[in-house]
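Quick one - first record:
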Amino acid sequence: MNRINQNIILKDGRKLGFAEYGKVNGYPIIYCHGSQSSRLEIHYDHSFAIENDLRIIIIDRPGHGISDFNPNGSILEFARDAKQLIAHLEIDKLSVAGMSAGSPFALGMSYLLPENIYKTSIISGFAPYNQEITKYLSSEVKIMLYLAKTFPILFKVLIKIQAKQIIHKPKKILNGFLRIMSEPDQKTLKNQLVINTIESMFKEAFRNGSKGVAYEISNLLVRNWEFDLNEIQVPVTFWQGKKDNNVPFEWAQYMSHKIKGANLKIFPEKGHLLIFEHAKEIFKDLKNIA
């Protein structure tokens, strides 16, 4: 069986694509990929998952990769999609992780499906977009998100242009996109295996166009999330680099204070891509060993 290119048909007729890594019968973890990404977003070395008896499931969000676009999509609607996949895979209990812009989707699952989720981890996580936290953003990210929220049609056009460029000139576009990252991230990006992973997951995100990516950023990430962080009952741990230019560490502090009992692990010398050095630690922590 091709574990990387799987899909199910949801009740409304949409196709939901997903990939599985690690042990076939290992402890299940749903990992929510970042923005402009896909089910191919995984550490280039999967051995940590096999060694720790983990089954990592990564879902293409609507309009990304091989998942059909959902014109009525929302953060909680994705959680409902995930619930159908969990039932299809006959999984009762699992953990959830969210990387960067995958954060709201992992937290949405935690809010909506507490009976299924043992624990949640948020890595370099995107926070609810409000005036209180935007002041911490770098100017580049702040401009992009402002554009997405205030001029969504223009933003959609720009993402469409970017999508075409990623398909035809991926290295040139990625170099520009990654240039804003911090010094610790630049060191991580010197590893060609990391670059290969990022290029593959980005290109796959735009396999069927840019509509899903643009919709998610403009209509979901910078809008109301449909739930409050203080309503989450699942144990949550935040993993955050203090030298993260993409997602400021203050966002992790903000969210951890909102969620009762949340843990916050700050890495003073790490950036946005700390997952490439700490994947084993992060995913092993999600395993239910009871």
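second record:
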Amino acid sequence: MERKVFIYSYRPDEAPYFDDCCKEFDLTIAYDPEPLTDQNWQLCKGYPCVSINAIEVNAQLLKRMYDNGVRFITTRSIGFDHIDLQAAHDLGIRVSNLNYSAHSVADYAVMLILMVLRHAKTALGRTLWQDYSLTGLSGREIHNLTIGVVGTGQIGQTVIQNLQGFSPRILAYDLYPNERTAKLAQYVDFATLLRESDVITLHCPLTDDNYHMFNSEAFCQMKPGAVLVNTARGPLVDTQALLNALETGKLGGCALDVLEGEMGYFFHDCKERQVNIPGLRQLLATPNAIVTPHLAFYTDQTTLDKARLSMLTCKQFLDNEPIQWEK
């Protein structure tokens, strides 16, 4: 099998890392700066390995890629819910995700917590218009609060470690508690976390079971004035229910780096396009709602990690070695 990899969503800042890895692992690459779509899937013809970012890869697209000779897909993301795994397995296409520096998303999540608690969106907006008044900008100090962390994998654990310096009470919820986290946070059931947390930050993967886990019912159970931060996956949160909770004052604010319906818009310059992300306009117009375009992961370290580990999984596939993060 030829040692060839086709890379979609190829960014110039990734180039030096991909070049170094290809020399190290004896790989030949070709690339397209655009994400994998129905329009450019033919470009990977003859390449047994394909590297993608988080973009929907459905059964029809997988069949076309298989017929083109693709036998392995590596996604440069921790999440892999954008790939139809069952269809890939049925075809005989192997799939891998990867891990990257947990500090990237964890640091960003703490920043978003601080921004929403200190009304950064309103303060920065006023400053642009030379309004330096303090009315409505009184913030809250983290050490006085209870922070709820949903999902205690590597990123959730790192968030909890980061929060130690602020000395809040920390609650944690996960289907699979771990001893390391239990030393720094108190594991509770989901209902207790909703009821007692002043801030809830999400760090769990998206599954069929937790789709819209933050819905109208969940928001009703939360503390009045609580804050929600999501740097995980957009569909964990029912956007319309979130907007209702903000409008009624049930929620004190939110900070979202991910949104349901973002795919095809986030990571792109959409100034000349109509953006149809449900609820986005309302969120952008809401003073206590912060939205950023899925960039929590984006640091110099993760750029290196994603390029290197993506190529490493291709090397492992081509050399018939165990693939570290195979799904």
